[in-house]
Amino acid sequence: xxxxxxxxxxxxxxxxxxxxxxxxxxxxxxxxxxxxxxxxxxxxxxxxxxxxxxxxxxxxxxxxxxxxxxxxxxxxxxxxxxxxxxxxxxxxxxxxxxxxxxxxxxxxxxxxxxxxxxxxxxxxxxxxxxxxxxxxxxxxxxxxxxxxxxxxxxxxxxxxxxxxxxxxxxxxxxxxxxxxxxxxxxxxxxxxxxxxxxxxxxxxxxxxxxxxxxxxxxxxxxxxxxxxxxxxxxxxxxxxxxxxxxxxxxxxxxxxxxxxxxxxxxxxxxxxxxxxxxxxxxxxxxxxxxxxxxxxxxxxxxxxxxxxxxxxxxxxxxxxxxxxxxxxxxxxxxxxxxxxxxxxxxxxxxxxx
Length: 353
Known about the structure:
Elements: E1 5-7, H1 9-15, E2 21-24, H2 28-33, E3 40-41, H3 47-59, H4 62-85, E4 94-97, H5 103-115, E5 120-122, H6 125-143, E6 145-150, H7 157-166, E7 170-172, H8 174-178, H9 196-208, E8 215-219, E9 224-225, E10 228-229, H10 232-239, E11 243-247, H11 250-260, H12 262-265, H13 268-275, H14 279-295, H15 299-322, E12 330-333, H16 339-352
Parallel strand pairs: 1-5, 2-3, 2-4, 4-5, 6-8, 6-11, 7-8, 11-12
Antiparallel strand pairs: 9-10
Helix pairs in contact: 3-4, 6-9, 7-16, 11-15, 13-14, 14-15
């Protein structure tokens, strides 16, 4: 075998276990946006160096840019070898990729091959990985058997998904992957949402682990979770799948939301800021009344009004319009929000599906 070996992502996916490391040589910003699961970042050009070389390429010429790039790339590869790989044995086998599988990954792969390592370079780089992810999401989502947990805001869908997962069921928790609870108040403190690409990569990685013969449980979602879009083909298949409707009394739904959104209770200013986003739908007078409830500490009353006047009407319209089998949903009624009740509901769901 002649090294570096140039392989497609399809081949790399089959051979992942044989690689001792997956090395992403793109800049830190490119890596942070998204990367192949398990890859480490060893940039041959950092963010500022990449900009400098790119600007020189456009404004001065390709020869001058490549000359400077060679200096920077050689220096950085040497530092990576010294810091991260100097102790690696002769049979160490890395997979290396960059944006398109060109100069950056090729430079490191060439040097590693000259050292004597059995190095593989990803043909097409990260772009080939993205192409595979997009195609896979389309193909995989059609093959799976979905069960969609429905129910108005506060009915415990997310908590029930988590319970199902702990009990060994296959669960695709899109809100967890998106870092957002899917409503105007759904932002999670100190948890910024990932990029769209990283969100899709998380879905891809999860679907890879699933058994096509078993049901996957997922929560009924809108097309967007925060600022992220659920892949269209996945959304279409979810909306055409059998539904399971979770029922809690409105009093228990209020109790559950007070638990899950405790950060807003402690931060009235943030709560009021989010309420302002509803002004176009409900008018200034109603928003002012809701803000007054928040500022005076009447949070349970505020939550109840939000459910009755905002969330429930919106949910009813959305579920009837978008989930074609919602009117035939299996009904799961819970008396309380105790952990034992969620376990019992999860068992009932698994027994029926």
